[in-house]
Design a protein that fits this description.
- The complex is a heterodimer.
- By secondary structure, chain A is mostly helical.
- Chain A is built from twelve helices and no strands.
- Chain B is mostly helical.
- The chains are: A mainly alpha, B mainly alpha.
- Chains A and B meet through helix 4, helix 10 and helix 12 of A and helix 7, helix 8, helix 13 and helix 15 of B.
């Protein structure tokens, strides 16, 4: 590890943000669903599909913002499937999620291979702020150090914190996750809330994938998310189902990942894989110490009217 | 009219029983094969040619046959590792981690324990079984003591175990002569041989088949199996009936995880001979769809065979026709989705007919 100075810290902070951004999106996607009583294991699959869709959209149009749009559409489609399966039918949430992830690995790798065979280059332009110009320039230039999707992720954390804990819809949302039966008895559309959560959650997962490809690794490879969706899941448990704490968890886990890369590059010190164990070990420790007291009670339980 | 509808509801509900779930699993697998057919067509290959290449590829050479049968062992044991705890109401998503740790523990014994070959191999097999059971320990404790969903915790343990395995094979257990992360190769004296000698049939296959039959007997014909189902179906009622619910659950979970560990040991000692980057593919994970579609130990054996054939055959399909082998992942997930959707849909229809 070279000299540690101000530049090193700035680089490191940007690396942490880069690694944390996909996690924040995924974690919010899991959180939205858990609060409505759905254990969204499928977030990993949504993320992977979003990652490929973002690359494709960006490469085919030449504009990374279209990549973001493509990821959102893909997320909506994933959400429709998951909502139909786990809210409406309802089929087992965990089995559905695991199967969905497998299908997602299959489809994305298949499509990717077909495109490569047809000579489609898959290097995506990365998503950055364009020059703003005018009198705003001095301010925007400073803000623009942080990439757009990171800003979006942080804004979404604030919005969801306020939405969940300080508004009427947020209260209804949480009540569905706490006790679907009681919420139903009070006249709430449990299935509608759960479907909305899955649609939103899958779009967030897909945006996490877009943040991975458009904001970091500018291309796609087979199963490139490598369990990042599950780190998002870990962040929700570590962050006690609260967006603000979840943001903190994602930054912490992102720092672990950034440190692992640095250790790998330096080729000395602690084995990088120990840093990569961080999210899981910390989350298990948190569950062991604090338990599940703050978790939504009905998460994972199917709801059948009647 | 109401009477007729109620009877229709009854019929539909009865439809969703063991026999139907076997039919449903068959239908789901067939529909998925059909979907694969379409994908192959989209990829620009002749579907018939590609699928026959796949099925032939799984058996055409000695190596392919051994490889298919070894996959079958790992997938069957991983399937049982999900199925047995599932009956008791514990969804073990941690098979992959338990399998990794099983392989790793066996490797530690092989590397550090110096004794007569038979003794070392016995110790390695014992170590992998033990490691599998230990790996599920924390999620089990958290479920019993903290009420934490085992799904999330076993997923966390999976990834922690994977990273630990990587840290070991790029650190203290790394083969000094290798440029990538791997343990040294198992010396040939310490390898599990095929049986009959030279046939290419892994000895683990006989154990796996025996264990599947044993599990079938255990679940269907013993008091323990009855307790297991009672605990999985309605735990308070089981406890009220005097069944030691907690103990039954613990036994089922430890047994399942031990089998996943054994899968890791068998693969390491009998097929891959190394614990290396990506050595375990997704055997443990595939146990989940296999258990869900199989529905019983013998079903696991059957579905496990199909999945093993696809796993080996897809590589030869890719080589011969250029159709991406990644299709296999789709085939592992899609039938489960169809199966769950059909099952839940039937239940829904049964309920709707009931309430009219």
């Amino acid at each position: 590890m070279g000299r540690v100075d101000a530049n090193w810290w700035l680089d490191f902070l940007l690396a942490v943000l880069r690694a944390a951004t996909p996690l924040i999106f995924c974690a919010l996607g899991v959180l939205a669903c858990e609060r409505a009583g759905i254990l969204n294991i499928g977030v990993e699959g949504s993320m992977l599909a979003g990652a490929l869709a973002a690359v494709l959209g960006a490469v085919l149009t030449g504009d990374p913002w279209f990549g973001v749009g493509a990821a959102i559409v893909t997320g909506l489609m994933a959400g429709l499937v998951l909502a139909g399966m786990t809210a409406y039918l309802p089929a087992d949430q965990i089995a559905t999620g695991i199967a969905f992830n497998l299908v997602s690995i299959g489809i994305t790798s298949f499509v990717y291979r077909l495109l490569l065979d047809r000579g489609v280059g898959l290097m995506a332009p990365s998503l950055n702020w364009g020059p703003a110009g005018g009198w705003l320039e001095p301010i925007t230039a400073r803000l623009a150090v942080i990439p757009p999707l990171t800003w979006l992720a942080v804004i979404l954390v604030v919005v969801s914190q306020v939405l969940l804990f300080s508004t009427g819809p947020g209260l209804l949302w949480r009540s569905v996750g706490e006790s679907a039966r009681a919420a139903h008895a009070a006249g709430l559309g449990v299935l509608r809330v759960r479907s909305a959560a899955l649609l939103g959650g899958s779009v967030l997962g897909a945006l996490g994938g877009a943040a991975l490809t458009l904001g970091w690794v500018p291309t796609f490879v087979d199963n490139m998310t490598m369990g990042r969706g599950f780190i998002g899941l870990a962040a929700v448990y570590f962050g006690r189902w609260r967006p603000d704490l979840v943001l903190f968890a994602c930054l912490l886990f992102g720092a672990g990942e950034a440190l692992a890369f640095r250790a790998q590059a330096a080729g000395a010190g602690l084995n990088p894989y120990y840093y990569l164990m961080l999210p899981y070990v910390l989350t298990l420790a948190a569950v062991a110490v604090v338990g599940m007291a703050m978790g939504p009670r009905d998460a994972g339980k199917p709801f059948v009217r009647g | 009219m109401a009477m007729r509808l109620a009877r229709a509801g009854d019929r539909l509900r009865r439809l969703v029983t063991t026999r139907t779930s076997i039919t449903l699993a068959g239908v789901s697998l067939l529909l998925s094969l059909l979907a694969m057919w379409v994908c192959v067509y989209v990829a620009g290959a002749d579907p018939y040619h590609a699928l026959t290449a796949m099925f032939r590829g799984a058996f055409q050479s000695r190596w392919a046959l051994t490889s298919t049968l070894s996959e079958w062992v790992a997938i069957t044991l991983s399937g049982l590792a999900v199925l047995i705890p599932y009956r008791a109401g514990f969804f073990n998503v941690g098979g992959q981690g338990q399998l990794e740790m099983g392989g790793l523990a066996a490797a530690v014994v092989i590397i550090y324990f110096d004794a007569a070959p038979a003794l070392v191999m016995a110790a390695a097999l014992a170590a992998c079984v033990l490691a599998g059971a230990v790996t599920v320990g924390l999620p089990l404790l958290l479920r019993l003591g903290r009420g934490a969903s085992e799904v999330t915790t076993t997923i966390m343990v999976n990834f922690a175990a994977l990273r630990l395995m990587y840290a070991m094979i790029t650190g203290p257990l790394q083969d000094p002569g290798a440029w990538y992360g791997t343990t040294p190769i198992v010396p040939s004296a310490l390898r599990l041989q095929s049986f009959p000698a030279g046939s290419g049939i892994p000895v683990g296959l006989f154990v796996a088949v025996g264990l599947a039959v044993g599990a079938w007997w255990l679940l269907n014909s013993t008091v323990f199996g009855l307790h297991l189902r009672a605990v999985g179906g309605n735990r308070p009622a089981a406890a009220a009936a005097g069944i030691p619910a907690e103990r039954v659950l613990i036994k089922a979970v430890l047994l399942g995880a031990a089998l996943a560990g054994l899968a890791g040991g068998f693969q390491y000692l009998g097929h891959t001979f190394r614990v290396a980057e990506g050595w375990s593919k997704t055997w443990g994970l595939v146990g989940i769809p296999v258990a869900l579609l199989g529905g019983s130990p013998l079903g696991v054996l059957l579905v496990g065979f199909l999945f093993a054939v696809l796993e080996t055959g897809s590589r030869s399909m890719q080589a011969l026709t250029g159709v991406p082998a990644a299709l296999v992942f789709m085939f592992q997930g899609l039938p489960v989705i169809i199966y769950l959707a059909l099952g839940a849909g039937l239940r829904r229809m049964g309920k709707a007919a009931d309430s009219k």
